[in-house]
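BUG: 3D viewer hangs when loading the predicted structure for this chain

Environment: internal workstation, default settings.
Expected: structure renders.
Actual: progress bar stalls at 90%.

Input used:
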Amino acid sequence: MASPVVDHNKEETVKVKITGKSHVKPNKKLGRRECQLITFDLPYLAFYYNQKFLLYKGSNDSFADMVGKLKDGLGVVLEDFHQLAGKIGKDEDGVFRVEYDDDMEGVELVEAIAEGTSVEDLTAEDGTTTLKDFIPYNGILNLEGLHRPLLAVQLTKLKDGLAIGCAFNHAILDGTSTWHFMSSWAEICNGSHSISVTPFLERTKTRNTRVKLDLSLPPDPLSISNGDAKSAVPELREKVFKFSESTIDKIKSTVNANPPSDGLKPYSTFQSLAAHIWRHVSHARELKPEDFTVFTVFADCRKRVDPAMPDNYFGNLIQAIFTATAVGLLSMNPPEFGASVIQNAIEAHNAKAIDERNKEWESSPKIFQFKDAGVNCVAVGSSPRFRVYEVDFGWGKPESVRSGSNNRFDGMVYLYQGKSGGRSIDVEITLEAGAMERLEKDKDFLLEAY
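Structure tokens produced before the viewer hung:
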């Protein structure tokens, strides 16, 4: 079952051989559990599984011991995160929910080996072509959680380390919940008998509207995002830009050289960096001054909703915030202009705005497609606040943390904590190939990033 993948950067073939497949359930019997999916969850049914990739240097443990430790820890952590061991179902009224019972198969776990691949090979990978064979469920829609596990994990033995590829069903959890689970799993593997922060599983405490959706899988799942024009989709490239702490500070201080005068707070690190990315991506796209460009951020609403939800809320509690401006205004004004546009949109997204958005969606449910992110869009997901480099299963911190190939489109950006720590940030960007080539040569964008 070897699967060759061509890494175009190195023009050589990576071979990943699947050596085994099993399933992991919670260690304890939990009986039947059901939890209704709510308005914050449902729009993501037509997205793809959310993929995460973590890369570790070798340890003194053998691969078999590492797999055993990860399996054992997974069985323990699933006692609290049992929803990930379940399936998506529907109740008698056709309302989607996540269901668990002890007879379900649980989490899918694949073991693999890539004898000729080193940690350094995968750390150097900018795109996602090579990564595809190390992460399960490429191109699989969340709606397939009706008959597939809601979490699939692939553990691949490398020449000098271990690759962990995870595919999470995005209809049942967001980034905050994803990394809560990952850090809890690592906590157990590192010797703890229980996790320090249990998940808050009562979704209907924040919204209890029952929305019936009549959804079925399309004949070609890719058509849900690309329509009939798949052949016309431009070539996309991904790249990771590593911004050091000093670079981030420079960007932030430049944007805050003229702080807001209307009583708003100074521009945050996120607002400063987002404006920097938005300006330079628009320039790299060679847009006209009169063209419009949309900035979208998938914002955590746990503290924005009323009543506020705890940080350990498990599920989706994110909402897309959109704002737009003309390219000429963005490029010809100083950097703080873009930051102010972003800040105003974020500040306005309060509990009332969230409630109005939910009511509007519930009255006429719409399943998101990538094109809904907006024209000439820059859309930001993930967050440098997630402590991804603290996910230590007992053999050290990861060498690299990446997103997989799913849920990418022209203008999609993922932000991660930088491996060097502090305020450093890794910026994963997907762009049309020509625009990416121009962005790579933009010295004002790179500063000292490369």
